[in-house]
Design brief:
This is Aspartate/methionine/tyrosine aminotransferase. The chain is α/β, with parallel strands linked by helices. The protein has two domains: 12-37 and 279-378, Aspartate Aminotransferase, domain 1 (Alpha-Beta Complex), CATH 3.90.1150; 39-276, 3-Layer(aba) Sandwich (Aspartate Aminotransferase, domain 2), CATH 3.40.640. The chain has helices at 12-23, 39-51, 63-77, 83-86, 92-104, 121-127, 146-152, 175-188, 227-230, 245-258, 264-274, 278-301, 326-337, 365-378; strands spanning 26-27, 87-90, 110-115, 131-136, 157-163, 191-195, 221-226, 239-242, 305-306, 314-318, 339-340, 342-343, 356-360. Helix 2 (39-51) packs antiparallel against helix 11, helix 5 (92-104) runs parallel beside helix 6 and helix 5 crosses helix 10. It is globular. The mean pLDDT is 96. The structure holds glutamine. Residues 11, 13, 30-31, 167 line the site of glutamine.
């Protein structure tokens, strides 16, 4: 399977879910929620399946969903988006990412990838013939390293991929970081691919910030969202891209040959969901925030050093000096404690950042309590 583009390995999330199943462990590894699916959105999908249509919807997505994506961005982020020219529906953010890489990159282009990075970025950038250039961020502050970032830029740099709110570290980029990135985009003529699938999952009254909101760079930004996260239905695989027409056109050309379309009933249901009143979005945040507090509090009580979590489904914890191999630690915790997490090294191309593990807290309270009890008993 090795080629000049590099091997496509089994994703860490699948690997850890299989390990959890084999051990009968509580799975806090793979990032998916438990018991949060909004009933009215599920009902909307059922109604749409009953009524049809069942044939190929328009290649760019149902107008109702594209309008809802634009309207939701206006309501929550104050963005001004032309739904007809600037919104594309995809089969999940995963497809959106692939379309963006295939549509915008030429062989030999370099793409800055901030690490820890979601595991699909680098393999697909390579398959597009481009070169991922990792810029790593690290403890204790997990901040964007301005100098190292600028040093990584060459005349071949075409884009960077940015994930805010950030899986796995649970951070939101702040205004100073976004300002720096925007200036860099202008100075070096770069495009930003912004994976914002956790845009609605922000806590403690914080605000998600997007580069798309900065007028000087708006037309250089590809903004990606996912219904999987916003409506706690990760199996649905409905995503969306917002970008100016000039960027969206080549992305759409890739999309027409990757999936072409996305199931229409699910698109209709997601359109309905995006138009739900603020109370839905506030409720989701509040519920997840409570779950975060439960898991983070429990892990800290068990002696883990856990980073603060501003957003996302995830909390990261240091494994501690005695057990400083994250992969071995996750395996041991799965088989000995009966709780599965994900090693953070999976988010680093070289696999050498071995000091932390990631827990998903988007689970039912009883699941989280049981996991904490097992970990306390084990440590
Ligand atoms: N995004 C999820 C995570 O980070 C999992 C996605 C997947 O399993 N491919 O855990």
């Amino acid at each position: 399977a090795n080629s000049i583009f590099g091997a496509l390995d089994t994703t860490i999330f699948e690997t850890m879910s299989r390990m959890a199943a084999e051990a009968g462990a509580i799975n806090l590894g793979q990032g998916f929620p438990e018991g949060l699916e909004p009933e009215e959105v599920v009902e909307a999908a059922i109604a749409a399946l009953r009524s049809g249509p069942h044939q190929y919807p328009p290649m760019a997505g149902l107008p109702a969903l594209r309008q809802a994506v634009a309207e939701n961005a206006r309501r929550f982020l104050g963005l001004d988006v032309d739904w007809e020219k600037e919104v594309l529906v995809t089969s999940g953010a995963t497809e959106a990412l692939a379309d963006a890489f295939f549509g915008l990159l030429e062989p030999g282009d370099e793409v800055i990838v901030f690490e820890p990075a979601y595991d699909s970025y680098q393999p697909i950038i390579r398959r597009a013939g481009a070169v991922p250039v990792p810029v790593r961020i690290a403890p204790p502050d997990w901040g964007v390293p301005f100098e190292r970032l600028e040093a990584a830029i060459t005349p071949k740099t075409r884009a960077f991929i940015l994930n805010t709110p950030w899986n796995p570290i649970g951070r939101i980029l702040d205004d100073e970081e976004l300002r720096f990135l925007a200036d860099l985009m202008l100075k070096h003529d770069l495009v930003a691919i912004c994976d914002e699938v956790y845009e609605h999952l922000v806590f403690d009254g914080r605000q998600h910030r997007t580069l798309f909101a900065l007028p000087e760079v708006r037309d250089r930004v590809v903004r990606i969202g996912s219904a999987g996260k916003t409506f706690s239905v990760t199996g649905w695989k409905v995503g969306y891209i917002t970008a100016c027409e000039a960027l969206l056109k080549p992305i759409m050309r890739a999309h027409q040959f990757v999936t072409f379309t996305t199931p229409p009933a699910l698109q209709a249901a997601v359109a309905f969901g995006l138009n739900l009143p603020d109370a839905y979005f506030d409720g989701l945040r509040a519920e997840l925030q409570g779950r975060r507090d439960l898991l983070v509090g429990g892990l800290r009580a068990a002696g883990f050093d856990v980073e603060n979590v501003e957003a996302t489904y995830f909390a990261i914890a240091a494994t501690g000096e005695a057990k400083s191999d994250d992969v071995a630690f996750c395996r041991a915790m799965t088989f000995e404690a009966g709780v599965t997490a994900v090693p953070l090294s999976a988010f680093y191309g070289k696999g050498d950042m071995r000091s932390h593990i990631r827990f998903c807290f988007a689970k039912r309270e009883e699941t989280l309590r049981a996991a904490v009890e097992r970990i306390v008993a084990w440590r």
